[in-house]
Structure to design on (480 residues):
């Protein structure tokens, strides 16, 4: 039994839908010959749709009603065009047309209330942002039926039961597993392919939530783990996980095999190809994840497995480089901090109370400064909280300064083979030095699978490219 997730570009337009239908039909045919047949499909919204929905809702909150009106008609056309080109059956097409119209009417109604109230709540935004998947999944199910696959749309609001955190909800796994098995296994056993909305879930009370941007990958892993499928396939627009973002490094190469831990590091530090939480459910169940290219389906892509199950050649050293943008480095500095216990605890205690995500921490041994990196959006609240926390220390000048440094990027160099391989740091800094790139801060995890560097926004692309060159990652697996 396999789980197949298709991302936004994989369902971006008519040709892509047709391609996905071929891939699924082929998988269904192949699977039917196995001992445990079954295919489960999860889909993202058509590319650009989630952004359009969110932007329109935000504009409505600011009093601008034009974007949601335009979105309503453009999104109707976008979905109907695919249905019109790929589904011949008039009844099926009319049914889908009504469904799109209902969803978009609801979207317009919501945006109207947002505009009247002048306020967009996190809860309201989750309702709006999940509507893209609630159109693309029924559409894909229809396209698959037109191709002769017994597909049926299922809303993940019925399956993934989450906590009530909006835009980043966590599944309540016991409930979710029970719902997935109860609802999906009978369908699969009767030869039906469930086509499920990615990204969305709902609370125990039925209130819509989302798993956070890019969360359809996570949906696939949750559902795949709940059903104990033999593989979770993530179909996207590149040949698997590459040594760097191909938009930044044109000669980036596919990594044929990675461990869950390596992928988790890469995703956490900005490799958009997988949502950072994707590996967790898969790893717990030991289910292999494959990242494949919808537009080059014969390419082997990347296989993600437990570290000791890897079968490919061991890479001694660096495997991949990522960059995570829109970060802010906060420094707490002062000579009076030296030897004063509890400064770090109080610093991170107050950061935690702001619920800010800390991506990197570095403290020099002289204890004269602590620096850490948070997303730009969280920085003002974090600085204000620290200023309040260290009010007295600032007044007495034990702490001289609490400062923010916006527009910085974390570049992360990842590879489990870096552990115990000498000379990596030297090579890394030589590469950056030779391009006159200033390294603002450095951190290395105890696992030695990751070295993170802070550089200025303007240096980020060059930093990634020069590290990629220095470690000759374009030559990785070149002989195979
Ligand atoms: P989908 O819509 O299929 O979920 P995403 O746009 O979320 O696709 O993720 C795929 C994109 O991730 C690629 O097109 C690529 O530009 C980007 N990306 C960033 N880093 C990497 C990497 N290391 N390997 C592969 N792709 C990467
Ligand atoms: N459609 C959602 C987003 O754009 C989820 C996803 O694509 O994974 O964030
Ligand atoms: Mg994605």
């Amino acid at each position: 039994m396999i789980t197949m997730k298709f991302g936004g570009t994989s369902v971006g337009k008519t040709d892509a839908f047709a391609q996905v239908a071929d891939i699924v039909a082929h998988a269904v045919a192949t699977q039917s010959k196995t001992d445990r047949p079954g295919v489960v499909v999860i889909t993202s919204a058509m590319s650009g749709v989630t952004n359009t929905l969110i932007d329109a809702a935000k504009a409505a909150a600011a009093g601008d009603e034009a974007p949601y009106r335009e979105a309503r008609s453009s999104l109707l056309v976008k979905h109907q065009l695919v249905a019109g080109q790929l589904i011949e059956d008039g009844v099926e097409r009319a049914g889908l047309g009504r469904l799109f119209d209902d969803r978009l009417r609801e979207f317009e109604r919501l945006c109207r209330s947002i505009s009247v109230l002048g306020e967009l709540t996190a809860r309201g935004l989750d309702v709006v942002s999940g509507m893209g998947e609630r159109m693309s999944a029924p559409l894909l199910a229809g396209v698959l039926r037109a191709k002769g696959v017994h597909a049926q749309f299922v809303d993940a609001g019925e399956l993934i039961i989450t906590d009530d955190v909006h835009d980043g909800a966590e599944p309540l796994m016991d409930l979710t597993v029970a719902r997935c098995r109860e609802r999906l296994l009978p369908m699969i056993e009767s030869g039906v392919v469930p086509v499920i909305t990615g990204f969305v879930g709902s609370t125990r009370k039925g209130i819509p939530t989302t798993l956070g941007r890019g969360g359809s990958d996570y949906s696939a892993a949750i559902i795949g783990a709940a059903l104990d499928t033999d593989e979770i396939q993530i179909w996207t627009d590149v040949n698997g996980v590459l040594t760097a973002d191909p938009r930044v490094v044109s000669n980036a190469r596919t990594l044929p095999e990675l461990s869950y831990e390596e992928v988790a590091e890469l995703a956490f530090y900005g490799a958009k190809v997988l949502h950072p939480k994707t590996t967790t459910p898969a790893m717990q169940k030991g289910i292999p994840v494959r990242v494949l290219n919808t537009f080059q389906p014969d390419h082997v892509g990347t296989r993600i497995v437990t570290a000791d199950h890897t079968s490919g050649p061991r890479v001694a050293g660096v495997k991949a480089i990522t960059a995570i943008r829109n970060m802010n480095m906060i420094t707490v500095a002062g000579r009076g901090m030296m030897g004063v216990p509890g400064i770090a605890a109080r610093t991170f205690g107050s950061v935690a109370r702001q619920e800010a995500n800390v991506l990197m921490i570095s403290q020099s041994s002289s204890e004269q400064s602590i620096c850490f990196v948070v997303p730009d959006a969280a920085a003002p609240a974090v600085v204000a909280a620290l200023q309040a926390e260290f009010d007295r220390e600032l007044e007495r000048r034990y702490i001289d300064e609490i400062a923010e440094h916006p527009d910085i990027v974390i570049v992360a160099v990842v590879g489990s083979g870096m552990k115990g391989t000498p000379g990596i740091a030297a090579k890394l800094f030589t590469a950056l030095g030779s391009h006159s790139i200033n390294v603002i801060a450095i951190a290395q995890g105890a696992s030695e699978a990751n070295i993170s560097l802070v550089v200025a926004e303007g240096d980020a692309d060059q930093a990634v490219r020069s590290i990629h060159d220095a470690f000759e990652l374009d030559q990785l697996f070149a002989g195979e």
Remarks:
- The longest helix spans residues 90-117.
- The two ends are 30 Å apart (CA to CA).
- The mean pLDDT is 94.
- The CA atoms of residues 240 and 301 lie 4 Å apart.
